[in-house]
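Entry 14. Ran structure prediction on the chain below.
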Amino acid sequence: MVSNEVLFAIFTASFILALVPGPDNLFLLAQAALEGPIAGISLTMGLLTGIMCHTAAVIFGVTVIITSSAIAFTALKIFGVCYLLYLAWGAFRTKGAEISNAEGKPRGNFRLYRRGIIMNISNPKIAVFFLAFFPQFIDPSLGHIARQTIELAAAFIAAFLIVFIAIAYLAGTLGEFLRKSEKAQTYLNRAAGIIFIGFALKLAFTENN
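Output, structure tokens:
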């Protein structure tokens, strides 16, 4: 079982990352501002369903890699460190994002739910991120690697659920704030960059016990 300290660290980092302007939360922000909070929640449920699909695939992949061999784990660790540093570099380079009006076309709640699923499942970067993110917090000596991965994913999803629902209900206020404050967007991206660097360093010193 993953310790409460690790789960809290995952939750906190995921909470900050969920705030960083990106395709998912910007589309959610625009759609909720256009059609209201219920539409935003429908889209949120779709996005999180898509994340769960990626999680199911990653559970198997992480389990196989960690239990297969030291070489496989080392290769995964090197890949993870490089990818997290790449994300940090991108976060520091990113400037304020433009928030669109979601094409101004109303969509039904079920269509938004389906759109959220498709947006996530069709984005392989999420699975890649999980593969780089989760192994550093898994302790093979505790056994039940799949269970540990599920617990980490649950903390990740809980943070995104809270942030995305808040966005859905505060879409108008948040949208206006982010549209006018590139500085706020820049600070969020820099915070994400620091988090990515921190996780990359932690992963670099992670051992497959």
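The chain has nine helices and no strands. Will compare against last week's run tomorrow.
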